[in-house]
Amino acid sequence: MKMKSTKKSFRSLSQTIYSLLGFKSETNSTWANTVCDIIKSLPSTADYENDYHDSANCHDDDLDDFLISKLRAELSVLNEEVSRLNAQRRQVLNEFLQLKGSIRVFCRIRPTINGENYSHKKPVVPMDSNGIVLNFTENKTKLYNFDQVFHPDSSQNEVFSEVEPVIKSALDGYNVCILAYGQTGTGKTFTMEGNQDCPGVVPRTIEALFKQAADSNHKFVFSFSMLEIYLGHLKDLLVPQARKTTDPMPPCLNIQTDPNGGIVIENLVAIQVSNFNHAISLYRLGSQFRSTASTNSNKVSSRSHCMIRMSMTCSDATERRKITNKIWMVDLGGSERVLKTKASGRRFEEGKAINLSLSALGDVINALQRKNSHIPYRNSKLTQVLKDSLGEDSKTLMLVHVSPKEEDLCETVCSLNFALRLRSIRLGKTEPNEAREMRELAMNKLQLEMQDIENNRDKFTKEIKKLNQKLNSLTKTSSDSNEILETVLEPSTVKTSVKPPSSKVPRFMRPTVCSTRKSGTGHQTLLKKEIRPTRRKRLPVSRAESVNFPIKNMTESYSSSISRASCLVELNEMHAEDNDTVYSHDTDFSSVNVSEANQWVYLHNNKRVLPIPPPVQISNPRERKKKGNDYISLISSTGSTKSMTGVDDSYTECDISSQIMSPDAISDTCYQNDYVNIADGTVLSQESTHETWDTKAYDSKDDLTANVPGVSDLLKENIMILYNIFLLGLGFGNLGYEPDFFQALMS
Ligand SMILES: Nc1ncnc2c1ncn2[C@@H]1O[C@H](COP(=O)(O)OP(=O)(O)OP(=O)(O)O)[C@@H](O)[C@H]1O
What we know:
Bound molecules: adenosine-5'-triphosphate
Number of strands: 22
Largest sheet: 9 strands, mixed
Helix content: 40-55%
Number of helices: 25
């Protein structure tokens, strides 16, 4: 235990050294370095450790080290095992998808919706999980085969279970494309988006991506984009759209090809998303900007192709197909027979544009399936955007939607013929039954194998998480103890990253404004805005970043600068409060500084600077507002970007932030000088007795004089003058001015 106590005393010593920084002008970083040099020259920890080992075979820190290295070794074995299983799973999945086909076509039959009338004979009948029969007349039927047929009562869950394998492919680095195709009003948006109770493919895919990425033992960075292709133009759905002709137009989206053949959409917004909720909120936002309209076939009909893109980057998995890849989820515009919908004007143009691009998409997929040498990507914007996600090295799912209604039979035939064109020639109806059964058997086997691998991997991943937690708690305790000494030895890091532990230091030991100014430590501390939780709470020793605030025609002593944070707070609040109230009790403390500074350096129209505001109460709210406006005009005239961020040499200026009290000094002053209302004995804090444009402050002062019975106006004025002298004495006293300075000033 001797060793432990020695270490502890060293730790507390370094802490003490650190807390003394800035207490006296001598206790600066040079001093701290010297003391730490002395500490370094003392017998090293290793010497103690050796001694300790001699005296006792076991020690807490050694045990920690031993446990840490043991945990690390275990983790590396487990991680290797997970990587091996991942590679195995990837291989099995690929085999599985190859048997299934890299372009797969599903068919979903929409259920009947309330109020719809149907003829006695059902025109669209699902056969089994792959077949669908169309009944044209009594004795004329036609059978269509697909990779999967979803019956009218199939749930969103069932649909997603067929989609899920391609999400795994996406995480393996393949580009993936999920397309919802069909006549208008057949349920494309329902499948892709779903509703609150039955979420569709898009939310489920996003959720699965985040979940599977978390389970994968690799670090993924996801980004979300959303666009629509409307009348042949690309429109970013995450950018506010121009409503009036005078509104600026959003940047034009151009499609480019990078040297590797990847598609780049210029100016498309891609927002990094770290979790499901974040991505979904963006999706909801984008959905609001979609172009929809009411048509004869659908009350809320999508008049464009809506495309959602999740890009993912994973640089620590070398076995992935690509470092960055993407998954497109596309709710295609509804195919429609213009004659039937009787669309005209804009609706007609929209329908025509949708049909043309759908036809181009069909041509591309068909050419890919036939392995044609020329793939006609350039025939539409839709196929240009999807160029790198439809080819050889990617996975495509087409969900074809059909209506159950007899009157829609023509459109249903068109949709199913379109879908048939997309089906792999190899997997078409030419495939013999025997071969098909063999293929299905092999696929089932691979699926079981994959399930087995995933179960094992999950077991290991859980174990890794547990071990990591243990390791974190062990390494945290050992690194915490070294951190403080390192900070003292490395004074440059104190500047921005470490906050002095002022709350642990007794008040009398904390630096004053002057000492901070002399030692120069004030500017080394936090740049962040401090929130003042309650009026009486002590604030840490910290100062807001100060910027020069040039004022024309000012002598050096009266020129000022204010904190950037406070300036912004003031401005915001003045605008927000319609200039009536400058700050409230929970205002940033630094903004209080500015208002107090305005009592001492009152600025009017940026021309005249008086040391003290005239002790005139502004009871008329209009006047009060005007005064506030003067302040605003001051901030806006002198607080321009230039003056806020830099120094303008044409002005005489000095940094008044060094004259304004530090928040701590102000809070100290408040403690020492709480004002007792002589009439009712209540304690008013200094803040509330100051003359600012805070209505509360005025009320307090009004109370102060009004509550004294029989006080004449002259007496009131004298009290106010005395009171101002008192305040000025306090404030300026803290800044190093002598009382006779004020007497001279007042006289
Ligand atoms: N499987 C389903 N279960 C329940 N309701 C459905 C289903 N499919 C579609 N619907 C309902 O049918 C209506 C039309 O669906 P939806 O708007 O999704 O069609 P759409 O194909 O996207 O049409 P458009 O191309 O005109 O945008 C909606 O009210 C939707 O809720």
